[in-house]
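Suppose a colleague, Dr. K., hands you the sequence of a protein chain of 285 amino acids and asks what its three-dimensional shape might be. Before reaching for any lab equipment, you can write down a predicted structure in token form. Begin with the sequence itself:
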Amino acid sequence: MLEMMNKMSDFPSGILVETTIRCPADCVICPNKKIDNRPRDMSWTLFQKIVDACRGKQVKEFCPFIHGEPLAWEYLERGLEYLSRTIPDTGVVIYTNGYLLDSSATSLLLRDNISEVHFSIDGLSKRVYEQHRRGLVYERVLTNVTGFLAELRESKRRIRTHVALTLTPQNEDEVDAFRLFWEGLVDTVDIIPCDGRGGEDRLPAFADGSRLPCFQATSHAYILSDGSIVPCCKDWAGYSIMGNVAKQSLESIWNSAAYQHFRNDINRGITPDIEVCRRCLTDRL
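The predicted structure, expressed as tokens, is then:
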């Protein structure tokens, strides 16, 4: 069984790339504003190298996002076009807060090989939303997101849409109304417990969020803006770097002894003995 798992994971089936750390929001659930140890934007050369490494590898999904707003990356249009040419059978997944989703950005996302769009919206009322998504204006986000959904309905594109609420003690009373509002407008409404990464006024993990299953750690690679590969999206600070694609190949890093050992531990239900996992379990990310 272990030999089969290793054989099946010779290359990640999903790639998440931190194309930018830039974001107009200062969310209480996000560590974005804490990040000061790597470039604000991934270089085009590095992005191109990552995409080239995926050629012929049957990567199922590619996400140009980890800890920033992908619509703020200056190379996004060029990047989506390059993905379409280089790995045309790979679905591109967009996560956005919707604040920069104007008509131009909407046209961009409807034009390329986008398979899913996830909107992060952490409240139904203006008060609760802006309490979580500091710096953003609820009315603008709502207009942008509903406008995108209307354009999508009129188009011939088949894009799955999701709206996510990150659950905290401050918004749990709005969950039922939130679901009622968005169901029918999007394909899926996701309610996700706050995982404790936090922001400037850091929120602890909620509803045992620090022990959520590591459901993508064994199949997806997480690449930060400087090329560092980390085990999961919670490792915003680079606590446990597996390698760097600016210096090594993605395939060699993925198949390194340390990375394979990490994935095998996860597959066996064992918490890996690495820094980010220790921090995750103690909610001290």
